[in-house]
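Q: My labmate handed me this sequence with no annotations at all. I'd like to see what the chain might look like in three dimensions before we decide whether it's worth expressing. Could you predict it?
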Amino acid sequence: MKESKETRFKRLVEARVNKITAMFRLLGNCSFKGNYEYEEEQINKIFDKLYSELDKVHQRFISAECGNRKFSLTNDYIRKENPSLIMPLPDGTCLRAVAAEDDTMPNLSIYLQTGNDDEEKSVCYAEYNYERGAGKELCIGVWNSQEEDPYFYEPFNKGNADD
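A: Here is what I predict for the chain of 163 residues:
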């Protein structure tokens, strides 16, 4: 009898998670200062790498859960190479945060992905606007689903009345 997809998934995932857990325990053995010498910076590099890899795997599962959205010329999509994070919401929609490393205006945008029609709507963004005065470059914008322009756009740090 052929193994079902669910049974194969459970078998492989259980074996792989147990293997990874064992490797984490082995890594933890390196924490004993009686046998090893290390700096905090080294520990931070180790855990930055581990968290990064774990996040990548998690995103693969979440992306599969939310489904890859179809391309549409009517939606604003940011190029694929920009880092993104998808968060499923209880109602079946997803929020997608995208970082754009733009030389003129680096930004972080949040989009709402609806499950029914593969539509993606801009929700809000934070950007570094070089055109603003000193200390007021970091700006926040919020979209209204019914409008073309943001209904709120202000510097994060408004400063004093004397500025």
